[in-house]
Amino acid sequence: MNRIAFLFLFFIYSMCNHAQSLLDEYLKEAGYIGQNSTLISDAVAPALSIIRQQYRLERDGSFYGKNNLPFYGETYTLGIKVSNGTIMQRDVVFPWEHDADFLRVKQSGNYKPAIFWSLQRSLSDSIWSQVELDLGTQYTYPIAKDSLLYRHIDTINDFGLPTDEMPGNKKGYLVWAYSHTNVKDSTMRVNLRQVGHHVETSADSTYYSVSPENADNVIGGVFVVPVIERVGYIRVQVAGIAVKNKEGKWVLQLLTKQDDVQSQEEATKKEKGKRKKDSESEMKKEETVENFEPTPIKE
Fold it and tell me: Contact at 8 Å (CB) between 192 and 177?
């Protein structure tokens, strides 16, 4: 009896694996997957948004902007709606970290950065809406210990992409979001491009280097894996997020939960000295920029 049960379970497992392996081939032959196909990106698009995070400077209880604007700097990044929350990049929580003007100003020690407005819009919309992201509270927390990605918890659990946090090799698609002008244009139009991607996971890291085309116009990316959920249904799951690391390079962070993150922590510590040197060298570069001196904000 046990042998029959084992053979039956083995048969079912084999059929599922065979069906999964045929999924990509079928979609490609049917014209749904390929260089000119938008099936995967169309399925993902409703869950994506652009987050525009502004910050200002504070000194002795007064706030300062730049160029007579009510904010000193801002970032534009990709937000991914998943069940029970939104995954966003570190630049939303610390929008001043890669701002060359702030690196100059902070040397005086007179100013501190302060979060200002959080704005958001869908990829197909042109209107920015103010949102509450609960930055600095328990409702927004880092996904990994080195804090490249953050999750904002909300109560909307019936909308959003499901996540794939299981270990193992991943075969799916990287969907990149591109600005038609530049990544700091408030009127940007966003285009999505999907490319096949395969990740062979390792035991001590959830980060993998990726090299998108036209990287200067990339806002962000999401790695999704289509799986057969049941007969007639294909489920698109988020397995990773493309994010810039602290050196400014694009990496793919898998959502896989790792028990051992010691190696990643050690690598992060080794990078601290290098990041400090990079920041100092960046300040020494001669470049034409707008006036970076803080200007008082009229309340």
Answer: yes
